[in-house]
Amino acid sequence: MRRSLRSAKLLCRLWVAIAALLTGTIWLWSSSSLVLLGTYRVQDFSVNELWRTADSNGWRASSAPRTYWPPPPTESESNGYLRVRCNGGLTQQRTAICNAVVVARIMNATLVLPELDTNSFWHDESGFVGTYDVPHFIKTLKYDVRIVMSLPKITAQGKTKKLKAYKIEPPRDAPVTWYKTTALEKIRNYGAIYLTPFAHRLAEEIDDPELQRLRCRVNYHALQFKPNIRKTSSDIVNNLRSEGHFMSIHLRFELDMLAYAGCIDIFTPEEQEILLKYRKEHFAEKKLVYRERRIIGKCPLTPEEVGLIIRAMGFDNTTRIYLASGKLFGGERFMKPFKAMFPRLENHSMVGSGKLEENIQGLAGSAVDYMVCLLSDIFIPTYDGPSNFANNLMGHRLYHGFRTTITPNRKALAPIFMDMEEGHASGYEERIRQVMLSTRFGAPHRRIHPESFYTNSWPECFCQMKARNQADQCPLNNVNDVLESQFHSTGEASVAVSAKR
Ligand SMILES: *[C@@H]1O[C@H](CO)[C@@H](O)[C@H](O)[C@H]1NC(C)=O
Ligand SMILES: *[C@@H]1O[C@H](CO)[C@@H](O)[C@H](O)[C@H]1NC(C)=O
Ligand SMILES: *[C@@H]1O[C@H](CO)[C@@H](O)[C@H](O)[C@H]1NC(C)=O
Q: Which of 95, 177, 244, 279 is the most buried if burial means most Cβ atoms within 10 Å?
């Protein structure tokens, strides 16, 4: 852990000084020593360190099973077929796919390739097949679940038709027991169930680390974008890298977000009307006072605020920045101050001609943003709602080698920006720096509620080569061989059994 290492060094220096002064006094780790370190850190801080990945402290990503993991049921052993419809944007669908695989595993069901709700938010028709590499998905998960492309045909009373799935809406964040009882009974009765809608329908905290690791296998290994999306993304990344480091920013300054947050005072009366209308149509009524919302950190950062933060941290105007975002609300007026601070700004229209641009609309466009943000040296989310783009990326970057993520603490920053707006700007850069340097930068850390498993899968999906705790020990290198042999031996065994019958 980069920060704690540095703290350790500083603590060491402090220790010598203190020991000299107060010989024989036991110095306890107290809040006063933290304050001291805090100020130290600001002076010591070198922004260049952030371009490197965080120190992993011996941890590495690993989501292979660590205990006995039997192969999925064969066709005849399966309890039935599981169909799901994943709604929402790219990342909400992504987490729903992970959940669907886990649910199929829990229920010993055969998973029908998840359906992505493509015509709601993104006005897009590409779906699973157009976004992800399907053969790779099925192959990667072969030791975990059986996946089929569609429900099979059945023959009843001489007629052949598609098996019909019984429709159920699972409770939000349903516990594993719900799937082992209610859902299991239905799938056994009907042969197939259809879970819809299926976003956030499985609890994030599950007691079984093997099931959590399965989520990571899906999210970080099985779900691979299609070659055209990966090609576009790597073209962008190579272009940005050609001159050194680059950072990506997810600027969540979009109509839906702003309407949801209810932070509308900074907009013109016409814009406010649009936001209020959207709010009324999509969200529950609630009295939202801008100042109050802002002070508790509920307002998305404006592009200008994001610029001020990055500049205060010490990044200069030569920094290359990739902007991932939908349509920014309020137009150029809000981007102007940002561009004045950081002119080297790019987005996914930087590569290719109009044709390519057409291709990267909708889910695919979002997928390109996802890939570029995943691979960037530094990632800065500006708003982190439940299970959105930024949250999943933070988790993915952690898994992808502890890549630096700078997470602004909006609540701590709000009073600084409010002071500035009231004309008290003196020392603001130092104040911002103080806040920013006490945030985390992407090293392994404990997940604390309400942090999502998809934002931080440590420790379940990480391991150590020399672990003190047996549960953290990395699995043996031959884990795949073991799974492969189990896969074959039970296949043969079940053939033998059915032959005997
Ligand atoms: C699924 O299969 C495993 C292994 O055969 C078994 O232990 C478990 O009880 C089954 N669960 C359900 C819900 O059928
Ligand atoms: C960056 O800032 C320096 C002054 O600090 C200025 O001379 C230079 O023109 C700026 N570069 C760009 C690309 O705006
Ligand atoms: C991307 O950049 C281009 C050119 O700089 C600009 O015209 C366009 O509006 C930007 N798109 C988004 C979504 O920001």
A: 95
Three-class secondary structure of residue 82 per DSSP: strand
Give the Cβ contact number of residue 333 at 10 Å.
12
* Tens-binned pLDDT, residue by residue, of the chain (501 aa): 344 444 444 444 444 443 333 333 333 333 333 333 333 344 556 888 899 988 888 999 999 999 999 999 999 999 999 999 998 888 999 999 999 999 999 999 999 999 998 754 444 567 899 899 999 999 999 999 999 999 999 887 888 888 999 999 999 999 999 999 999 999 999 999 999 999 999 999 999 999 999 999 999 999 999 998 899 899 999 999 998 999 999 998 989 889 988 889 999 999 999 999 999 999 988 888 888 999 999 999 999 999 999 999 999 999 999 999 878 899 899 999 999 999 999 988 776 544 445 555 567 888 999 999 999 999 999 887 654 899 999 999 999 999 999 999 999 999 999 999 999 989 999 999 999 988 778 888 889 888 899 999 999 999 999 999 999 999 988 888 889 988 887 654 444 333 333
- 343 C-beta closer than 6 A to ligand 2: yes
Ranges of H-type helices in 145-243:
176-178, 184-190, 209-217, 227-241
Give residue 60's Cα distance to chain centre. Answer: 18
Closest CA to 247 of 28, 468, 442, 452: 442
Nearest ligand 3 atom to the CA of 349 is 1
Pick the ligand that lies closest to the CA of residue 254. 3
Q: What is the CA radius of gyration of the chain?
A: 25
Q: Which pTM does this prediction carry? A: 0.86
Q: Which domain holds residue 127?
A: 81-222
Contacts by 41-49 with C-beta closer than 8 Å and gap 24+?
41/6, 41/7, 41/10, 41/437, 42/430, 42/433, 42/434, 42/437, 44/6, 44/10, 45/314, 45/433, 45/437, 46/314, 47/313, 47/314, 47/315, 49/2
- Counted domains in the chain: 1
Q: Is residue 323 part of a domain?
A: no
Ligand 1 closest atom vs CA 79: 14
Is there a contact between 82 and 193 (Cβ–Cβ < 8 Å)? yes
Q: Give the residues across from 116 on adjacent strands.
A: 86
Q: Any idea which residue has 């200008």 for tokens?
A: 304
What 3-state DSSP class applies to 110? strand
40 Cα to the center of ligand 2, angstroms = 29
Residues 86, 395, 301, 359, CA torsion sign? negative
Which residues, in sequence order, are bridge partners of residue 322? 248, 346
Please check whether residue 258 lies inside any domain of the structure.
no
Report if residue 336 sits inside a domain: no
Q: How buried is 102 (Cβ within 10 angstroms: 0-12 exposed, 13-18 middle, 19+ buried)?
A: buried
181 falls within a domain: yes
